[in-house]
């Protein structure tokens, strides 16, 4: 996918290209920060409408279709409603933390985009500058750190609300983030080993001839799974399961305080999708066939923003499609999947990538590896990745079969129950019907009630005496 001229030299295998900000004055950095903010806010407005329309189509209902053509202005109406909606603070809440939590959740979501390259070098107000705010030798770690800070917003919201259900949601969020950030971080180690850098611009440059989704296919699959766990999206939205804990950590929030959590969730979706695009799908670079047009013209300048946006929205459609397709998982299944499957197999994968890369480079360096040798090692990594994916599927099938056997071994639930059996009235479970209580059980309950009333009367008479 190499282009021509200066870009082809910078993106050559073994190169050390990094974004050049030497012609970027401070005021232009502020302008780019404003552009990134507007890009994200407009994307959030569009994706909320897009999600509601797509999920409505999947569920055979129209979705928003009243305000504007196709309901396109419905998101703006909802935003105004949140702004003017009454807000309140629960009586038992920790006021400072209660107000701070939505600010943390909403604002930290934007930090990750500071190091995401939206395109290559572009001409902006007479200056040649990368369409990226900044770059660091450890830029990817900044995104992971910002995501970890955002988790504090959920935890503090649940704790500071002074209510049971938000507290449960906050605890779930803590366990969920800790579990799946480990697997996500391990999945990215393979990319760091293959690129030899944590700089986002350099990782994109290293994918000039081969996107990392091919040699690091297992890392890509694990990262996509962890994307849902990190953003609290179905089927992994256990921290806000409406059917179990009402609304989770934001149960006691309303108005724009709730809107900040809502905004943070969608911006986080764009952040993890942008990171996946950067690390696995070549970033802003054009797909392989298009790089051959006019000597790579479509791989330069503002064209990169188009390819980056298309890849980004491919992930957003996947988010929406999964939400409209899969049910919420059980919490114990979710945690067991992360700790017993993803983390151990990702550790095996990282060691395999390290050994393969060491064998590929040896002591001669990457530039000395022939095209045949590079293809061989890439094929070896693909085989290892497919084998580990097969291990994940096989383990899941075996565990599902064992659980089905355990459930089948349990005694069958009777279709009829005696509500007074055991001395206490018990309501029927789903699928059960009540039958007439036996005289013995009914008499025992009646006698117990009479004894209770007699004891209460005796206590009352003693008190009067």
Automatic annotation (TrEMBL):
One of its GO terms (biological process) is aerobic respiration. GO terms for cellular component: plasma membrane. Residues 405-465 are annotated as: Disordered. The chain crosses the membrane at residues 26-50, 96-116, 136-157, 177-196, 208-228, 266-284, 304-322, 334-356, 376-398. PROSITE patterns: COMPLEX1_ND1_1, COMPLEX1_ND1_2. It catalyses: a quinone + NADH + 5 H(+)(in) = a quinol + NAD(+) + 4 H(+)(out). Pfam families: NADHdh (PF00146). Its EC number is 7.1.1.-. Residues 443-455 have a biased composition (Polar residues). It comes from the Bacteria. Residues 405-416, 456-465 have a biased composition (Basic and acidic residues). NCBIfam families: PRK06076.1-2, PRK06076.1-4. NDH-1 is composed of 14 different subunits. Subunits NuoA, H, J, K, L, M, N constitute the membrane sector of the complex. Belongs to the complex I subunit 1 family. This is NADH-quinone oxidoreductase subunit H. It comes from Arsenicicoccus cauae. The lineage of its organism: Bacteria, Bacillati, Actinomycetota, Actinomycetes, Micrococcales.
């Amino acid at each position: 996918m190499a282009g021509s001229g200066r870009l082809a030299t910078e993106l050559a295998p073994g190169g050390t290209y990094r974004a050049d900000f030497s012609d970027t004055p401070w005021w232009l950095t502020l302008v780019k920060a404003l552009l990134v903010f507007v890009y994200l806010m407009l994307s959030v407005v569009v994706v909320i409408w897009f999600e509601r329309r797509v999920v409505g189509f999947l569920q055979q209902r129209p979705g928003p279709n009243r305000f504007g053509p196709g309901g396109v202005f419905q998101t703006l109406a909802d935003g105004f409603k949140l702004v003017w909606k009454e807000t309140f603070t629960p009586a038992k809440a920790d006021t400072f933390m209660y107000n701070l939590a939505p600010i943390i959740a909403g604002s930290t979501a934007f930090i990750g985009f500071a190091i995401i390259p939206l395109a290559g070098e572009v001409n902006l107000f007479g200056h040649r500058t990368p369409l990226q705010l900044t770059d660091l030798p450890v830029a990817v770690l900044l995104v992971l750190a910002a995501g970890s800070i955002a988790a504090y917003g959920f935890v503090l919201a649940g704790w500071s609300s002074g209510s049971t259900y938000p507290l449960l949601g906050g605890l779930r969020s803590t366990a969920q983030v800790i579990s799946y950030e480990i697997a996500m971080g391990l999945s990215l180690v393979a990319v760091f080993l293959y690129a030899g850098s944590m700089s986002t611009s350099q990782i994109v440059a290293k994918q000039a001839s081969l996107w990392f989704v091919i040699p690091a296919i297992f890392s890509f699959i694990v990262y996509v799974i962890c994307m849902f766990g990190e953003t609290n999206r179905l089927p992994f939205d256990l921290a806000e399961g409406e059917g179990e804990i009402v609304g989770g950590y934001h149960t006691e929030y309303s108005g724009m305080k709730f809107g900040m959590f809502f905004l943070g969730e969608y911006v986080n979706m764009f952040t993890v999708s942008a990171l996946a695009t950067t690390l696995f799908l070549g970033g802003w670079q054009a797909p392989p066939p298009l790089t051959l047009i006019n000597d790579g013209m479509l791989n330069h300048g503002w064209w990169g923003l188009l390819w980056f946006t298309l890849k980004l929205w491919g992930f957003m459609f996947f988010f929406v499609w999964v939400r409209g397709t899969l049910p919420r998982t059980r919490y114990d299944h979710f945690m067991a999947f992360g700790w017993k499957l993803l983390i151990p197999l990702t550790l095996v994968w990282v060691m395999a990538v390290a050994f393969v890369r060491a064998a590929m480079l040896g002591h001669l360096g990457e530039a000395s590896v022939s095209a045949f040798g590079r293809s061989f090692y890439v094929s070896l990594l693909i085989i290892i990745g497919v084998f580990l994916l097969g291990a994940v599927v096989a383990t899941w099938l075996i565990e599902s079969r064992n659980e089905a056997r355990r459930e089948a071994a349990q005694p069958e639930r009777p279709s009829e129950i005696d509500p007074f059996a055991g001395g206490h009235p018990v309501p029927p479970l789903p699928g059960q019907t009540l039958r007439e209580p036996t005289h013995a059980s009914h008499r025992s309950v009646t006698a117990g009630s009479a004894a209770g009333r007699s004891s209460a009367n005796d206590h009352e008479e003693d008190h009067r005496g």
